[in-house]
């Protein structure tokens, strides 16, 4: 399964797959998806869909958008037109990002109303409405190992570590640059942020909990907005995508860019109203493919 975002789209469709190239700097694109019509079509949100997330384990997908709602969808539903199985409300503005906790039991929504909402994925009932950001919450990333921990990034240039069990911010970390993308490493020890100036930063979760305020490392990977960051299963390589339709592979250990993939033959997405950028990508579980 791939993580995905669909900034600015009311209809979400899966595009091309890029096999990792043998020659640095080149993207070998191949259409591994069937050319037959898509199985399911849905109008997700009025005004645009900002992000989607897939429950793992489980059969649900969550989408969020400009209409202030989070919609839950059954990914096994068959039909050319299906609707959400549940709508999660309560937000006072657009929902910029959505995620499932690692136990698949809770849904997190990052709001333009400066709040982070937590819902029960089974019943749809609201568990927490957490505040603390001084500006819109841009993105949220749950811990891959601890269902009680999540991190958010806001337009107030602040990262917040949240205790989802108690519903409050356990720690706030100032961020010198405006964040636009967020992820946590598979071991739960590192936070990765992507920024509007094209840079990425690494943050130590344990140091942040202890009161540290600076990143472990920082690198300027792009000349334009970082639209996505993700970590490979080995926790050794960062995958980052930018508005300039390029994807960079960055080695955590050497702090160097090992490969840059550029797609000139096709469009990887469209720029969204929430500033998510044009290129959205993620690594397959076995590390063989990049989905964009």
From TrEMBL:
SUPFAM superfamilies: WD40 repeat-like (SSF50978)
SMART domains: WD40
Signal peptide positions on this chain: none
GO MF annotation list: U4 snRNA binding; U6 snRNA binding
Keyword ATP-binding belongs to the record: no
Per-repeat ranges for WD: 88-129, 130-172, 181-213, 226-260
One GO cellular component, as annotated: U4/U6 x U5 tri-snRNP complex
Top-level division of the source organism's lineage: Eukaryota
Gene3D superfamilies reported in the protein's UniProt record: YVTN repeat-like/Quinoprotein amine dehydrogenase
Keywords noted in UniProt: Repeat, WD repeat
Keyword presence, Repeat: yes
GO biological process, one term: mRNA splicing, via spliceosome
Record protein name field: Guanine nucleotide-binding protein subunit beta-like protein
Species whose genome carries this gene: Chlamydomonas leiostraca
Organism classification: Eukaryota, Viridiplantae, Chlorophyta, core chlorophytes, Chlorophyceae
């Amino acid at each position: 399964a791939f993580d995905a975002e669909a900034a600015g789209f009311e209809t979400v469709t899966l595009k091309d797959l890029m096999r990792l190239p043998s020659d640095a700097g080149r993207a070998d694109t191949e259409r591994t998806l069937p050319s037959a019509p898509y199985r399911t079509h849905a109008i997700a949100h009025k005004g645009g869909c900002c992000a989607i997330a897939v429950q793992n384990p489980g059969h649900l997908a969550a989408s969020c958008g400009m209409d202030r709602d989070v919609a839950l969808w059954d990914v096994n539903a068959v039909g050319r037109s299906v609707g959400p199985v549940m709508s999660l409300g309560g937000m006072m503005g657009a929902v910029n990002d959505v995620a499932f906790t690692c136990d698949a039991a809770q849904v997190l929504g990052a709001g333009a109303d400066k709040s982070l909402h937590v819902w029960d994925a089974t019943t749809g009932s609201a568990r927490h409405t957490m505040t603390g950001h001084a500006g819109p919450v841009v993105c949220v990333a749950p811990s891959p190992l601890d269902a009680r921990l999540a991190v958010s990034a806001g337009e107030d240039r602040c990262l917040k570590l949240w205790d989802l069990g108690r519903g409050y911010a356990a720690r706030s970390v100032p961020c010198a640059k405006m964040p636009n993308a967020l992820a946590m490493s598979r071991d739960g020890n590192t936070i990765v942020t992507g920024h509007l100036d094209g840079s990425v930063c690494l943050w130590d979760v344990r140091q942040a909990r202890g009161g540290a305020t600076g990143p472990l490392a920082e690198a300027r990977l792009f000349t334009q907005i970082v639209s996505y960051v993700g970590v490979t299963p080995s926790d050794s390589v960062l995958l980052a995508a930018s508005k300039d339709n390029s994807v960079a592979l960055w080695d955590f250990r050497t702090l160097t860019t090992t490969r840059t993939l550029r797609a000139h033959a096709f469009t990887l997405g469209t720029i969204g109203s929430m500033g998510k950028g044009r290129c959205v990508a993620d690594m397959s579980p076995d590390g063989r493919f990049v989905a964009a």
